[in-house]
Design a protein that fits this description.
about 130 residues, mainly alpha, Arc Repressor Mutant, subunit A, 3 strands
């Protein structure tokens, strides 16, 4: 009989994002895609209505935001709360799992934003070399 720790370790590795049929791959795509990541980070700040979220995630179309929210809700990362008002009010917020994922994304966002000078310098070097050929 396996111990609780052995069970937990075995369960941690029962999914393999590198395997084509693994369901974790789809969730990773939802989280790391352009609109998914930005949506999660925006909702990390606070609960938002659809149009507030659309304004916060500059450049996303209504259709893409709607599809993104549906995917994130299906994955258990976002909670949709419809208020029975006239006109209807719909709020979006992160679930506890969504908060955990958004925290990690926010760390990555902060890292990237904080190192953009290096990225831009690398791009200039790359373009200078490639343009010289």
């Amino acid at each position: 009989m396996e111990t609780s720790q052995e069970f937990t370790q075995a369960r941690e590795f029962s999914y393999d994002v590198f395997a084509r049929a693994c369901p974790s791959r789809g969730t990773l795509e939802h989280v790391t895609g352009r609109w998914g990541g930005l949506t999660l980070c925006a909702l990390h700040e606070r609960t938002l209505r659809f149009n507030e979220l659309r304004r916060r995630v500059d450049g996303v179309s209504e259709k893409m935001l709607s599809q993104t929210l549906h995917a994130l809700e299906r994955d258990g990362l976002v909670h949709r709360e419809a208020q029975p008002t006239n006109p209807p009010r719909v709020d979006y917020e992160l679930t506890p799992l969504g908060h955990d994922v958004a925290e990690r994304l926010m760390s990555l966002v902060c890292l990237v934003e904080g190192r953009m000078d290096e990225v831009l310098a690398a791009r200039e070097r790359y373009d200078a070399v490639r343009g010289a050929r």
